[in-house]
Records
---
Amino acid sequence: MSISTAESHLTEAERLAKAGFRNVAVVVAYASMFHAGRALLFKDGVIEKSHYCLAVYLREKYVTGGKLSNELISVMDAFREERQDVMYGLETPELNKDDENAAIENARKMIKEVKKLLV
């Protein structure tokens, strides 16, 4: 279920990007990454809703085990911080097209890699 949510968010992020809603596209692309990661937690019987703890868990269980790249999780975690700034910051960050493209591409990669681990 969480992987289908990740795929749905990725589609939404792509649509938002095309419509020019850059900050929202990045937030939704991050949500795609988050839900892809949660799919692995659910597979492992772990229920966690903390965005920070998700990255810690994935590093400890999947990066250390050689199943996911540290770069993939580091990029996801960087977009977690961007999401925080967009949603809760006092000033709206100026995300650019490269940020948007990177978020969407990382979400796409994360879904692909997680699907391999869910089989």
---
Amino acid sequence: MTRLFILVQYLMPQHLLSRCIGYVARSEIPWLKNFMIKRFDAIYKIDWSVAERKEPKQYVSFNDFFTRALIADARPLSGRLISPADGMVSIAGNIEHQRAIQAKGHDYSIPQLLGEALPESFSNGSFLTVYLAPSDYHRVHFPQAGTLKSARYIPGALFSVNQATATHVPGLFTRNERLVLSVTSSQGDYYLILIGAMIVAGIQPFWRPEPFKARQAIHQSLPGLAVDQGQEAGRFLLGSTAILITQANQNWRVTPGNTIKMGETLIR
């Protein structure tokens, strides 16, 4: 079944499917968006206690619900380097020869992921990948305070990013649509990468009112734009993956399979 699932992903019109689902997810027709939210809740058991708005009727669309904000104290910040998102740790390790591990048997080129050369200062750095399941909170936050230097949006494929696909599609993260944020920090520079996936209707950074369109690459220089630890970096309109690449070598306190929340410390 896994092989068939992977084959179907290669053959299907990924962007057309995502645009169609995205059109429905943006709908503000009350009965339709309420039906979708309630069905989603029935399947994934949403934790409404931490949501700012606690009823389907309070959301204008499914997308509005999916990217819902949380109450102020839902995700306290608890360390020098915190998790950028809710989710499951897929992999965590150290950079070797400018490559990072995707899954057992697969690694990938970090420069190819970033769309630019990896600075030499990152040669002994570390990486961590967080997979966001459909039921998770779908905003991504900056793990450390710093200055946002640049943002690069890279169009690409929209393969699923679940474990089965990560194990069987070489270079998965370098194939998919992604947003690369480069941050300078007093505790070591880092990259925060938001990876698009199948049925994701868009990646929306914090400075734009709409998600990027999957048409052309965009590179923005953002000199001097200060960001706080825990500040929102962007959000997924349907689920995906966040990757953190750090200049400093990290002693990770989390291991693959661990479930984490945004704001929890990542290092010992």
